[in-house]
Structures are given as C-alpha cells and as structure tokens.
Batch of 2 targets.
Target 1
Amino acid sequence: RLSCIRNNIWLATCGVISSGLAVLSSFGLMLFCGVPFVVTVANAPFLILGVGVDDMFIMIASWEQSSRKNEKSSVKSLLAETYAEAALSVTITTLTDVLAFFIGTWTAFPSVRSFCLYTGTAFVFCYVYTMTFFGAVLVLNHKREQGNRHWLTCMRVDVGKDQAENSCLYNACCIGSCSGQPSQPEGEHAMSVFFKKYYGPFVTNKWIKVLMVLLYGAYLGGSIYGCTQVREGIDLRNLANDASYVIPYYDDDDKYFSTYGPRVMVVITESVDYWNKSVRLGIESCAQNLE
C-alpha cells in the first residue's frame, strides 16, 4: 500500500516469522526425540513456508473483510469474526496436510519416514502459531493503524499545515501522500471485485456448471486410469544427466542382461577364518547351493 499507515509490511514479515518458528519448533522436537535428520528434511521449510504464507493471507483477508463490515466494532469482536471466517479453512487444510504426511511415516524407507515426521509435525506447529502468534500480531497491527502510526517507525503521523509545505519525498515517506494530506481509506480490493462481479456469475451459469461436471468426470477417469498404470520402482537412468555416459550403460544393461534378473549378493556378517581350508570349502559349497 502507498499509505504509510495502512502498509502491512511488518504484518507480512511476522507471518513469515510464524512459519520459521514452526520449522524451528518441529526440528527441535524431532531432534530431541532422536528422529534422524536426513538430507531430504532440508526441503521441509519450503513446504511450511508456502502453507504458512497461505494461512497468513487467509487471516489478513478475513480481518480486512470483518473490519470493513464493522468499522466501529471492538478488537475482540473483529478477532472473533476473523477466526470464525478463516479458522475453518485453515484447520481443514492443516488436517489434510498433517494426515497426508503422517500416513507417509508408514513407508519402509527410513529417509522418507523421517521427512514425513519432520514435515507433519511442522504443519501442526504452523497451525498453532498461526492461530495464536499471528492473531496477536493482527491485533497489534490494528491498534497501530487506529493510533495513526507509521508502519516502519510506529511514530504517530500528524498532518498539519507546516507539513504540507515539505517536499514531496518527505510527505510520501512520512505521511503517505505527496500532497501532505493523508490518503483516503481504500475501497474493496480489485481481486475481490473481480471474483464477486465477474468470476462468480460466470461459474454459476448453468452451461458452465455442466461443462465443469464433464471436465471433472474426464479428469477423474484419467486419474483412475493413471493409478492403474503406476508401477513400483524407479528407473535409474532418469536420475542421470541426458548427456551422461550412464544412460547408454543402463540401455545396454537392460537390452542384454535384463533376462537374467537382478544381481544377487551374499554377505557374511560374522568373523570367519578364511585361512582354514574347510571354512573356504564350506563357503564355496554355500555359494553353489545358492546358484
């Protein structure tokens, strides 16, 4: 926003900090519990940041809608209405994410299991911080705006006759308007207007509804067919660069040796006296039996 009073840069920053606190809390708890930290876990903060920022936008949008409808309501009423609007969607998204990652802990791969434990726990902490820490920040930001204070310094912004004579740059930075007058309250956001006046009536048209049902049916059918084609395993050639020498190696291996099946190895885990002839004969006999 161009207004130095209604600018919400600190509010957005606290939303990102909330996600960071969730990551720190999750990682600290999992490390304290002895869950191994694998390299794939390093990708978890990016997932948490995406979900946390999304929850932040939902909370801010609900707060602004509540304050626009009830400008004279108390802070307690505004916060209650904001939670009534935003908490449901935030809770549902968090539950689905947590459920998806905790189901992933049933896998047999230890690295995937650790990643799912760290990430699923981080989603829980992200929800807790959004509902507590960020809600408090919304109230503090609202009080700052009500007190007519600058977004950066939190100093009170007073517009007087002497300030109207200052330079345009000074007025823009310290008042929010080159004219030296405070900017007028903003109307409804352009994105809200678009969805309300154009997108909403468009998707509620009966022919568009029929088209949506048909498209969803085609998508569902394609998804079911795709699930039947999924095979367990991984093609190692997909992990190499296109120009790598590994690609023709795997091509030749698949062409000439695929009929022999996978390579089988035998590992002797105990201490063995290999200099003893009878022991060596026993090992060779074992290998022959396996063959």
Target 2
Amino acid sequence: CKPGYFNLDPNNPQGCTACFCFQHSSVCDSAEGYSVHTISSTFERGDEEWSGQQQDGSTVSVQWSPSRQEVSLMSENYQRLYLVAPEKFLGNQILSYGQNLSMDFRVERRDTRLSTEDLILEGANMKVAVPLIVQGNAYPNENMQTYVFRLQEQPGYSWRPFISDSDFQKLLHNLTAIKIRGTYSERSAGYLDNVSLVTARRGPGVPARWVEQCTCPPGYQGQHCEQCTLGYRRAQPELGPFSSCEICNCHRHSDACHPDTGNTGNTGITGFIDCSNSCSYCVLKQF
C-alpha cells in the first residue's frame, strides 16, 4: 500500500484502505489482537427488538413468524415502510467500515417499486442510502434471497449522496439508524431474516486485518489518535475525538490541563485548585 493506506486485501476492490485516525494522522498499519465478529439477528425467538417505521417517522407494527423465524411488515398503500434495526447494530460501528451488511429478504408478490432509499444509514447528522438492487443484488421476489452491501464510499457501491471516506467513517462512528425498506407494493408484505453486520473485536479468532493502528503526531495518543496527550487539550471540545489537540495555555502555572475542557487542576492537602482555561484565576474548593 502507498503512504496513507494500509491492509492490502484481495476482497477489497480498492486494494488498500485509507488511514482514518480521526483525521489526525496518515500513518497506520493493521492492529494486532482483533478478530472477525458478526452482529446478527436470526429471529429464532422473536423480533429481537426490530421496529417498524413509516417515512414520516411514525411507528408501525412488526410481525414475527415463529414457524419461518422472520419478521415482516404489511403495507396498506404504496407508502414505503421500513424495518429499523435495534441498538446492538448502532453506536460506534467504525470497525465495520469496508465490511458487509447482509440480509435475507423476500416479498409477497413481484409488483416491486424500487427507490433510491431502500437501505438507509444515519449517523453524525448525515444520511446515505442505496437501492436494493445495487452492488450486484437481484430484484426481490417470492423466494428468500441474500442481499449484501459493502459499507464504503466508493462510487461503484452507489451510496447517495456521495461522501468522503472520512465522513463515511464518521457516520459509522456514531451510527444512529439502519433502516431496511420492508414493503414494495400496495397491500403486500416484505419478509426479513438473517441480518448480519461484520465488525471486529479483541480476542482470538480469524484476524481482522482491516482494524487500524495509527502512528500519532505530537499531542495525540490512542489506537486511532482519538485522545490528547498530557499537556494538550481539545481545540474544539464539541467535536470530541475529531477535534485537533493544542498545547495547554496555562501562563506557565501548570504543565497539564484537562484534555477536553482545558481546565487545570493541582491536588493538595487542603483542597483542589480549579483553574480556568488560561489559569488567569483560580478558585479554592474545600473538601
């Protein structure tokens, strides 16, 4: 891989993956100690907290079939209804970047009206979506078929709107919704089974070589350069790990400050000195 990229992978059409490192470094390599992990719903014992939603956000009922072990939605008209993933699929899913989200899906009848938003991902105040039939997937019919979507921003994967690789990872870092369209025609049902999200976790198993280990510049630390080192603070705390780190400004009264707020503290026998960002004034707190 050329500088700024890592993990030459035969399963990746792009070959190598760009270093993410919360945009603080372009030097990285594959992290050790991570193995392939899958988050899944097989609906063997219930709906597994999947919910139904209309386009306007209002809720609709999800049906679970104990015999077929699948969930479904029934439409009354041509309005799209979505199956919404539960919490275990959401949150920080950055380790799923470049990996697959897959599912088994069928419809009651073939009167299928596809859209540009058959699968929707939301997070970090962004939204991307794709039609069901992109990335080599077939039109839905009465038989269960497997649909696979690669979570990467490359043009051939047809995510719209097109966003940068760093924004796609930012979305996955704070994934707030996965919505799978469940209905495609009037008075017809759609059936979902075997939803799977490939990710990674620490521990033994098949190595997950797509997980990065970053080499951080001065002021940054952590596997992904997501933390400020001692003597540095967030320049824009509201951005969290995406904020740059800057040297603490304490007028030579302290060598360290809180990495997020910039406040400086020294613990003594009589109390705690709580200083402002610039250490221009202090307040003595008794305890």
